[in-house]
Amino acid sequence: MSANVSSASPRFRSKTLTAALAFLFGSLGAHRFYLYGFRDVFGWAHLVGTIIGIPGVLLLAATQRAATIGWWLAVPGAVSLFAAFLAAIVYGLRPDQKWDAQFNAQTGKHSRSGWTVIFVVIFSLFFGAFLLMSGLALSFQTYFESQVEAAKSLSQ
Q: Domain range holding 22?
């Protein structure tokens, strides 16, 4: 018997499932863990960023966006969330042949994406753009309100 022979066969990885995991649970790193396993550093980075970001968002909500530490804590969570939506778009739009060459070369199976992955891409683009624009609007509003308050206190 050869020591190199493994009894485990290579696992087929679905492009549709990967894009859906990135859309639904991407900020927790689910798509990275599905593709690369639990040793993936970027999957853990997603999870840590979300864990850091949740208290930041809660702190910002509780202080009406006045807590500076809340802004610093919310940024890693936002980066994780937006990276997950972007990953869903990138994975969903990758051609099946390239997907199979990278993730399913040893399985002998071929991907056949349908409309489901297209809808996942559309929803990822819609929700990602909505959240990005909302976040930018709230950030700029908070900044300009603080500038107005600073100008009022300076003029007194």
A: 15-105+113-151
